[in-house]
Specification:
Blueprint lengths: L3 H21 L2 H19 L2 H11 L3 H9 L4 H4 L2 H15 L4 H14 L4 H17 L3 H14 L6 H13 L1
Helix pairs in contact: 1-2, 3-4, 3-6, 4-6, 6-7, 7-8, 8-9, 9-10
Length: about 170
């Protein structure tokens, strides 16, 4: 909702006011303001709109996810690089059912910017492999599948990877 610089300044200002409350002897108010400062700082590192978009995605509401993502006007200035990676990752997921070329563009940008969790990166590479397979680019799909398998440490995507490898044999 707010720019990342504004969030940081607001967190520092609230923390400063907490220190002021401590000097006045209002310990309870100071502790409350420190928690409030921590919440604002949390939203600096985890964008609130992206969190709401993830909630919509968990409910399989692609239109709602896209609606929340559209609220971020300029992702390059409003988000940190990893957050922008997740922004593109979510857009890639929503566009994967509509337009594969657009989804591929978003997924590639998400890979370029990076994602925090290896499972998310594995899912992105798996989606890119699926798109490459549908566009008959077998070498690229094979390379992306092996990368996805390396990134999938908990074998959450093992069935999907196995199924895609079987489908690639048919091509």
């Amino acid at each position: 909702m707010f720019n990342k610089i504004i969030k940081l300044i607001l967190s520092i200002a609230i923390f400063g006011f907490a220190i002021y409350q401590f000097t006045l002897g209002h310990i309870g108010n100071g502790i409350m303001y420190i928690f409030l400062s921590a919440i604002v700082l949390f939203f600096y590192y985890r964008n609130e709109i992206l969190l709401l978009a993830f909630l919509r995605l968990r409910k399989q509401d692609m239109a709602g996810t896209e609606k929340w993502l559209d609220k971020i006007k300029n992702p390059a200035s409003a988000l940190l690089p990893k957050q922008e990676g997740y922004y593109n990752y979510l857009y890639g997921i929503t566009h994967s059912q509509k337009n594969l070329t657009q989804a591929e563009k978003y997924f590639k940008k998400a890979v370029k910017l990076g994602l925090n969790m290896d499972n998310d990166m594995a899912m992105t590479k798996l989606s890119l492999a699926g798109i490459a397979m549908q566009k008959r680019r077998k070498r690229e799909a094979t390379a992306l599948l092996t990368e996805a398998k390396k990134l999938d440490k908990h074998n959450m995507l093992a069935d999907q990877i196995k199924m895609m490898k079987q489908q690639m044999k048919k091509i």
